[in-house]
């Protein structure tokens, strides 16, 4: 008998479920999955929008101001925009970062993809960012075809760069098999 149980119908079911050890096993498996996936998602969440900010503003700052000191002025302008640009990068980029990080982390738990992790993350980052922006543009914004395709290309490139940088920094979940495992 469980004291203070709100639903009296569940009282006879609880000892049966506890005797099967289903809940502790499920909880341990869920916790191990969270421990395996969460670090990768957090790296993508923290690093992705910052990498996206630099992916957009670095080419702009290097080419925006003409002249011999134009590059320096552009870089100083990019640094001056950081207090506004970095928070805006998080506002616009946290959903693609979390979704891409979750997919990469889930694939990490399934596959040991060794050298293909970063290229697959780049393709996933580009695809997920473009799909999310496509859904946003289709639902909220009316654009002509030129602006539409330009926005998708820029978003895809930004998502690809951010996902690639994040995948390089995120820890691998499944270690590569040892080559000397059969010699023991």
Overall body shape = elongated
Total number of helices: 6
| Number of β-strand runs | 0
Rg for CA atoms: 23 Å
pLDDT < 50 stretches: 1-6
Number of self-contained structural domains: 1
Helix and strand content put the structural class at: mainly alpha
Give the helices and strands as they follow along the chain: HHHHHH
Beta strand %: under 5%
- Amino- and carboxy-terminal Cα gap: 52 Å
Kindly describe this structure.
- It is a single chain.
- The protein is an all-alpha fold.
- The protein has one domain (39-173).
- It has 6 helices and no strands.
- The protein has helices at residues 13-20, 22-63, 70-80, 82-110, 117-140, 145-169.
- Helix 4 crosses helix 6 (145-169).
- It is elongated, with a radius of gyration of 23 Å.
- The protein starts with 12 loop residues before the first helix and ends in a 15-residue tail after the last helix.
- Residues 1-6 have low confidence and may be disordered.
What's the layout of helices and strands?
Elements: H1 13-20, H2 22-63, H3 70-80, H4 82-110, H5 117-140, H6 145-169
Helix pairs in contact: 2-3, 2-4, 2-6, 4-5, 4-6, 5-6
Brief descriptors of the model:
184 residues; mainly alpha; 6 helices
Structure described in brief:
The protein is mainly alpha-helical and 184 residues long. It is built from six helices and no strands.
């Amino acid at each position: 008998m469980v004291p203070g149980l709100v639903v009296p119908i569940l009282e006879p079911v609880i000892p049966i479920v506890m005797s099967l050890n289903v809940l502790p096993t499920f909880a341990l498996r869920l916790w191990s999955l969270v421990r395996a996936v969460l670090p990768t998602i957090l790296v993508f969440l923290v690093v992705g929008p910052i990498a996206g900010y630099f992916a957009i503003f670095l080419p702009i700052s290097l080419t925006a101001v003409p002249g011999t000191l134009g590059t320096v002025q552009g870089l100083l302008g990019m640094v001056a925009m950081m207090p506004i640009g970095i928070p805006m990068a998080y506002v616009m980029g946290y959903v693609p970062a979390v979704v891409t990080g979750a997919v990469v982390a889930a694939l990490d738990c399934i596959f040991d993809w060794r050298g293909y992790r970063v290229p697959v993350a780049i393709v996933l980052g580009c695809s997920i960012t473009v799909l999310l922006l496509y859904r946003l543009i289709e639902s909220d914004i009316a654009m002509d075809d030129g602006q539409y395709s330009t926005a998708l290309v820029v978003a895809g490139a930004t998502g690809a760069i951010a996902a690639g940088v994040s995948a390089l920094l995120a820890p691998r979940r499944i270690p590569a098999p040892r080559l000397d495992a059969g010699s023991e």
